[in-house]
Amino acid sequence: MPDSLLQRFREHLPEATFVHFGFEETESSALYKAYLEFWENWEDELARRAAKAEPFLLHLGLKWDPADPGRAAVTRYTCHPWLPAEEIRRRLDAIYATSDAAIPRQAVHAAVDAASDRTRPGQLLYLEVSEEGNPRHSFDLNCYKAGLRLQVLDEWAPRLEAHYGVPAERFRRVYDFARARTLGHIAGGLDREGHDFLTIYYGMEGF
Fold first, then answer.
1. Residue (of 186, 160, 185, 190) closest to 172 by Cα position
2. DSSP label at 25?
3. How far apart are CA 194 and CA 190, in angstroms?
4. Which of 38, 57, 70, 94 has the fewest Cβ atoms surrounding its Cβ within 10 A?
5. Residue 127, class by beta-carbon neighbours within 10 Å (0-12 exposed, 13-18 middle, 19+ buried)?
């Protein structure tokens, strides 16, 4: 880990409840990841903060390429607790405002609407993600409490396929396998280069 990140890691480690490690590899590079998590569990933390629903740092991510010392990032995952659905939609619109991303934005709105119909206020966990020194501005919406299936996005699947230029056969093979599974997280927004993205997580049957 580069010294600059190691210093941040040591500074915040005593506050962390959990430490996670990740690894991401492409044909041309590798990225190591260390995450510090600053809470015990969702229900206890939200109950503790019910009277003071201010944003708080949930995770701190430290990411680096061991072959390229200049390729390193500090990622902040900020939780915005107790947001009603209309405020989540407003914040999503602000994230997508600087990009031509109407299709993913509308798809996420549809998921928010479906999830909010099946949950109580505070049960949709909404995070915003930013990195120092680049334009990344994204979100993560945890939908597990809604008990939805991925097929809630059936109307939007072909539009997302076209928006991101995914080969139809490849997209359908993955989507048809997953559509009956539990919708977990939806993450999206703008990446480090300012391009819009959308990631849909599924599969975990309990939370």
1. 160
2. E
3. 5
4. 70
5. buried
